[in-house]
Structure formats: C-alpha cells, structure tokens
Design goal:
It is a single chain. Helix 7 runs antiparallel to helix 8, helix 10 packs parallel to helix 12 and helix 11 runs antiparallel to helix 12. This protein is mainly α. The chain has 15 helices and no strands. It is rod-shaped, with a radius of gyration of 49 Å. The protein is 82% helix and 0% strand.
C-alpha cells in the first residue's frame, strides 16, 4: 500500500534525536495525530479499492476476490514510525524518572534552606548584617535550585515568601538595603506584568497559556516588593493572567462543542448504516446502488473531525463493524452469484452437448421436438458469466440452425406438395359450400378455418432456423395465421348475428 508519510517519519526521527525530549512533546503528539490520520485514510482507501475490485471482478470473472478476507500488507513506514514512538516514550520515561529524582533532591535542598530562613526569621536576636548576607546567599542558592514536585511547589513557595517577609520585617535596621531589594523585585515583577499583558496579542491560545505558566514560575522565584505596592502589583499580574485563562477556557469549550457536534454527525451516519437491509438486495444493480450509498457515507465520515475522547474510539468501532458487515454480506452475495453462474454454465454446456449430438439427425419430427425442448430448457436456465455467454449461445444456435436448415431443405418438396394439396382442397371446399344454406356454409367455413389455423401453427414449429430465408418463411406463415384468425373472428360474428 502506497504511503506518503515518509516525511513525517523523518521529522519524528529528528525530534527523538534531540536531547530535551520533554520540550518536543507537543510536536511529537501533533506528528502522531497527523501520521495516523493519513495512515487510516490510506488504509480505508485501500480497503474500498479492494471492495470495488471484488465487485467488478464478480460481474465477469471466475476468480473474484473475497473482500471480507482482505487484510492490508504490513506497512514498513508505519512500523518505523511506531518504533520511533516507542523510542521516544522510553526516552521520555527515562527523563521523567530522572526529573522526578531531581525534583525530590531539589525539594530536600529547598527544605533545608527554608529551615535556615525560618531560624533567621523567628530569631529574637540576630547578627543582622551577617544574616542579611546569609539571607542573600540562601536566596541566590534557592534560585539555582530547579523545580520541586508539583504537589509541594505551592507550599514551598508560600513558606519561602513568608520567611523572606518575616526576615525583612525583622531587620528594619537596614531599610536602605531592603528598599534596594524591593526596588529590584519591583522592576522584575513589573516586566512580568507587561509580558503577561503582551500575551493577549498572541493568536495561539495554547502557546499563550503555556508562556503565562512560565511567567508565574518566574514570579514565584522573585522576592517581595514594598508592602504598599504588593497588592496592586499582584492584582495587575492576576488581571492579565485572567484574560489569558478565559481565552484558554473558551478555546477548549469551543473545541469540546465541536467534538460533540462531530459525535452527533457520526452517530447519524451509524444510524443510516444500521438502517440498511441486506436481505432485500437481490441484484447487482441493487448492490451497486447500496454500495454507492455506503461509500458516500464513508466519504462523509472522513470529513468529520474527532469526537470527544471518551466516545471517539467506541463510535469508530461501531461504524467500522457496520461497514465490515455490509461488505462481508456483499462478498457472500457475489460468492453465491458466482456459484449460480457456474451451475448455469454447467447446465448450458450439457444442453449444448445434446444439441451437438442431435444436429445431424434425419429423424425430423422427433429431433425437431427434441430441439424445441432443448430451446425451452435453455430459456429456463439462468445467466452465465459474460465471457462465456455469447460464445455458448452462438454454438447452441449454430447447432439448432444446422438441424433446422437441413430439415428445411429435406422437407422443401413436402411443403410444396402440401401447398398444392391445400389449394385443391380449398377449391373442393368452395364447390361443396355452394350447395349448402348460408348458415351451414358459414359453420363449415368456421370449422375448416379452425383446422387450417391449427395445422399452420403446428407446421411453423418445423421451420425454425437462424438464416434469412428461414426467418422470412416463419414470418410469412405467422402473418398468414394472423389473417386466418381475423377471418375466423368475422365468421363468429356473422354466425352470431344470424342466430
């Protein structure tokens, strides 16, 4: 099966090769979604092509493909993509484990710093200058320490802020130094407020939300500002954050609404598939028309996006099962059709063999009856595969024509004598009629016409053939029979009027 995803494999390979696998997580997920969307579309197209090929083959070929037994060939590109995903997952798991261990170590280091900060913040007497430098050292060390487990981050940060504020409230003797730190922190937090407000211009809601989280992490690492500025500064930062968070929530609300609508559309398609009654499809035309409907529904399905995650797989499996059931039933129909065509082929070949045996017979009456019987049986036998139909019929007609042409030539003299005899009988009949009453004449004429029509209808059976002269003779005799029947009807009317 052709696959156009080689470029996606190369992109994934480049991402997996990067050192920071956590940084490319979203890119990997996007590649995965794109790859398998295209892969399943190609797989569906291959399945449909196999089903269509099976349908076309069953109309005229002996060795039709059973669509129900079709399975896709292993796709080396998909296998390579899956191996790269497994490699990425393994690397991510290793990084996650390493990060978890590092965060635990970071937690222990920060807890040790907090113990020291707490001791300085709660000390009744202290070496203020020594403690100021020690506090700065602890703050510097704190900033060099990476993240802690998320479950501990909030508590650790609150304690850090608390002990800083307690300490700076305690060391009022060094107001200038504290004010300098407050000013520096104010500048840094003001920049964070501006950056948060700038994020409102980012067209990507997801990127803006992720960047905002980074700003919050930086905010937590910066020390306090002057007490009279703290609330206003925090409210500014919080207001900018609220705008981004509302956009982020609205984005996902819209996404969920679209997914719900997609689920409704897919459920409607499933209901249409459920409504199909395979038992009523008895002909190629009916199966072809229904196949077009199913393929149209499949095409519509492919235009619909994802349903909600909790329902997406279930609705797809239901849809896939219904499609498989339809094409399996179609395959069984054509399999039975093939068996019927083969049986009809066997029967017609037997009739042809019997015709070949009889075509040279000179037992005109018995053989003519036999051929007429063979022709009737031929009509009763159903169709055969198109590639055999014309040739079989041609051979059968040739065998019939060979006999009837030979019979016509052999009985030509008999027909001429019959015609002469019939002209003499007609004259004799006219002569006899002259001595009868009008009603008797009409009744005698009526009975003779009935006999003449019966004789002509019997004789026409002996002039079957597929040559121009034989067909002309049959047409002439049929025309004569029709004329005699018209005359018979006129006599019936006259007799009825006389009565």
């Amino acid at each position: 099966m052709a696959n156009g995803n080689e470029q996606l494999v190369e992109e994934l390979k480049a991402l997996v090769a990067q050192d920071d696998v956590m940084a490319v997580k979203e890119q990997v997920e996007q590649l995965k979604t794109q790859f398998y969307r295209e892969y399943h579309q190609q797989l569906e197209a291959a399945r449909e092509a196999a089903a269509q090929a099976a349908a076309e083959a069953n109309e005229g070929a002996e060795d039709a493909t059973d669509e129900a037994a079709w399975t896709p060939e292993p796709d080396p590109v998909e296998l390579q993509f899956r191996e790269l995903l497994n490699e990425y997952k393994q690397k991510k798991a290793e990084v996650a484990a390493k990060n978890e261990a590092q965060m635990q170590e970071n937690l222990q280091r920060k807890q040790a710093i907090l113990e020291q900060m707490k001791a300085m913040a709660e000390a009744e007497t202290a070496d203020v200058m020594g403690n100021l430098q020690k506090m700065r050292d602890l703050q510097a060390e704190w900033k060099t320490i990476g993240q802690v487990p998320p479950t501990n981050a909030q508590e650790i940060w609150k304690l850090y802020q608390q002990y800083q504020e307690q300490f700076y409230d305690l060391v009022k003797i060094n107001i200038e130094l504290r004010d300098l730190d407050f000013k520096k922190n104010l500048e840094m937090k003001t920049l964070l407020c501006e950056a948060a407000e700038k994020l409102q211009e980012n067209p990507s809601v997801v990127e803006a939300s992720r960047a905002l989280q980074q700003l919050h992490d930086e905010w937590a690492e910066i020390g306090p500002v002057a007490r009279e500025l703290r609330e206003d500064l925090w409210n500014r930062f919080k207001a900018a954050s609220t705008v981004i968070n509302k956009k982020h929530q609205a984005y996902f609300d819209q996404l969920h609404a679209q997914e719900a609508e997609n689920l409704s559309k897919k459920q409607a398609i499933v209901e249409q598939l459920k409504a199909l009654d395979f038992s009523k499809l008895k002909s190629n035309k009916q199966w072809d028309e229904t196949t077009e409907k199913v393929q149209a529904l499949q095409a519509e399905w492919r235009t619909i996006g994802f349903a909600p995650k909790k329902s997406n797989q279930a609705i797809y499996e239901e849809y896939r099962a219904l499609c498989d059931a339809f094409f399996k039933a179609k395959s069984n129909f054509y399999k039975e059709m093939k068996e019927m065509l083969n049986e009809n082929l066997r029967k017609k070949r037997e009739l042809l063999a019997r015709a070949e045996e009889l075509k040279n017979s000179t037992e005109w009456k018995e053989t003519a009856d036999a051929f007429i019987s063979l022709q009737e049986e031929w009509k009763k036998v159903g169709p055969v595969a198109r590639k055999f139909s014309d040739d079989l019929w041609k051979q059968f007609r040739e065998a019939c024509d060979a006999f009837f042409n030979a019979k016509r030539e052999a009985t030509q003299g008999a027909r001429e004598a019959f015609e002469q005899k019939r002209a003499a009988a007609k004259a004799n009949f006219t002569k006899r009629v002259e001595g009868m009453t009008d009603r008797q004449k009409l009744i005698r004429m009526y009975e003779n016409l009935k006999q003449e029509i019966k004789t002509a209808e019997n004789n026409i059976l002996f002039f079957s053939g597929n040559t121009k002269s034989a067909n002309a003779l049959v047409a002439s005799m049929q025309k004569k029979i029709d004329t005699l029947k018209d005359q018979l009807k006129e006599l019936e009317d006259k007799i009825e009027n006389m009565d």
